[in-house]
Amino acid sequence: MRRVATKIFLTFAVALAAFGLVAALAVVRLQDLGRDLKLLTTGYFPLGRIATQLEVKDWIASRALELRDLDPAARRAYLPVVRAHFPALVREKLDEGRRVARAAAALGGEEDVRVLAEVSARLDALGTRWMQYDTASNALLDLLERGGPPELLEARAQETRQLEKSLSLDVKLLQAQLESRIADQVRAAGAAESRTVVLIILYSAIALMVGVASALFARRLLSPIERLTEGVKAIAAGDLSRQVEAPGNDELTLLAREFNAMAASLLSQQRELRRAERLAAVGRISAQITHEVRNPLNAIGLNAELLAEELEAVPGGAPEARALCAAISREVDRLNALTEEYLRFARAPRSPAGRHEPGELIGTLLDFLAPELAAARIEVRREFQPGVPAIRGDEARLRAVLLNLVRNAREAMAGGGTLTVAARRAGGGVELEVRDTGAGISPEALPRLFDPFYSTKERGTGLGLAFVQEVVQEHGGTVRCDGAPGRGATFTIRLPAAPDERAAAPAPALHAQVTQ
Q1: Euclidean distance between the first and final Cα of the chain, in Å?
Q2: Neighbours of 324 (CB within 10 A)
Q3: Residue ranges covered by each domain of the chain
C-alpha cells in the first residue's frame, strides 16, 4: 500500500524536477553562450586586432629607394632607424597571435579548433615569409649601405617588393578569415540567445503546467478527506446509511472502508435496538392482552362444553346446535393455542444453560416428530458430522427453535418432499442447517422473514421466526435464510461451541442417514 504522504511527495518532486530541469537547461545554455562570448572577446577579437597591426603601410623597398637618392652621410645616419623599424614589432605580434589562438582553441568546439588551427597555420606561414622578407630587406639595406650598382639595387628592391606584396596579401587573407569568423560567431551567439530565451519560456510553461497538474493531483489525493468530513457530519446528523467512496489503495481508502464499516455497524445496531424495543413493547402488550383474553376464553369454552352436554341430554335434540357448540370449542382451543404462543414470545422463559450435543438434540426432536413427518410424506435426511463440538444453552428454547424450523419446512412441503437436517463444525463453532425442497421464498420476502408479525402463511402469526432469531441471538449466534422460488429454503444457524470443546480436532467428511 503506497502511503498518501509518499504520493504527495512524489507529485511535488515531479514538479520540482520539472522546474529544476528548466533551471539546468537555462544554466547550460547560458554557459554555452558565455563560452561563445568569451571565445569572441579573448580569441577572435584579439586575433583580428593583431591581424590589423600586422598590416604594414610603410615597407622597406620604398624606403630603400628613397634612401638611394640621399647623400651618403644622411643615408648612413638613417639606415639604422630603417633596419630597426619592423622586425621586432612583427615578430612580437606573430608570437602574440599564436598564443591567443592556442588559448582560444581550448575554449571552442570542433569548428573553432579547426578555424583556429588554420589561423595558427597562417601565422606560421606569415612568420616564415617574414623571415624571408627580413633577410631580403637586410640584404637590400646592406647593398644600399655599400653603395652598390643601381641595376643590382633595383633588382633587389623588386625582389623585396614581391615579398612585401605576398606578405600584405597573406595578412589581408588572415583579416578576411577572422572578420568572417567573428561575424559568424556574433550571428550564432545572437541566434543562440534567441533560442535560449524561447526554450526557457517554452520549458517554463511546461514546468508550470506540470506544477499545476501536480497541485491538482495532490488535491485529488486529498479529496477523500473532504468526503470523509462530509460523511462524519452526516453520521453526526443521524444519517447512518451514508457511505464514503475512496477508490485506491492507501491510508485514506482504508480509512474510508473502516468508516463505511463503522456506519454500517451503527446502522445495524440502530436497527437491532429498534427491533429490540419493538419486541419488548410487543411482548408487554401481548402479555397484557393475552392475560385479559384468556379468562373470557376459558369461560366461553367451559360454557360451550356445558351447553353441548345439555344439548346431548335433550332427546333427538338439535344437531345443528351441537355442531355450533363444537365449532365454538374448536375456535376457543385455537385461540388458547394462539395466546400460548404470544405468552411464550412475551415471557421468554429460560432454564439453566447446559451442555448439549447437537446431534443428540436434533435426533431426539426428529424422533419425536417422525410420525408427523411420515404422515406428511416427508423424507428426512440426517447429516451429522462426527466430532461436532457441544453447545451451551437453554435446551428447551433451542429445541423450540429447531421445532419451529422443522414444522415450517413441513408446511412448505404440502405435497411431500425431502427435509435435510445437518450439524457440522464451522470454524470455532457449530453450524445447524434445516433444508427443505418446498415452494421456496421470494426475494422480496427474504429481508423481512425475521420481522415480528410478518408471515408468508395465510393464518400465520409472524412470531415463529422472530422467536427463532431472538433465541439464537441470546445464545451468541446468528441465523440466516437462503432460498428462491421453486428451489426450497435453507435456514442456517451458527452457534459458538462450548468453551472446553474449541480445541477439538477437525472432523472427517460427512456421512448421511435417511429415514422415512
Answers
A1: 58
A2: 15
A3: 4-217, 251-347, 354-515
Task: Indicate the CATH number for domain 251-347.
Answer: 1.10.287
User: What is the 8-class DSSP label of residue 435?
Assistant: E
DSSP single-letter state for residue 500: G
Q: Span 354-515: which CATH code?
A: 3.30.565.10
Q: For residue 174, how many other CB atoms are within 10 A of its CB?
A: 24
Residue 318, all three cell numbers: 338439535
CA angle in degrees (0–180, nearest 5) for 423-358-494: 60
> What's the pLDDT tens digit per position in 238-273?
776 777 776 666 666 677 777 777 777 777 777 777
Per-residue model confidence as pLDDT tens digits over 67-94: 666 666 666 665 666 666 555 577 788 8
Please give the Cα distance from 257 to 243 (Å, whole number): 9
Strand 429-435 vs strand 417-426: parallel, antiparallel, or unpaired?
antiparallel
What is the enclosing helix (H) or strand (E) of 355? strand 354-356
Q: How many CB atoms lie within 10 A of CB 480?
A: 14
CATH fold of 4-217, please? Four Helix Bundle (Hemerythrin (Met), subunit A) (1.20.120)
Q: For residue 70, what are the contacts with CB-CB under 8 A and spacing of at least 6?
A: 78
Residue pair 143/152 in contact (Cβ under 8 Å)? The answer is yes
Q: What is the pTM of this model?
A: 0.42
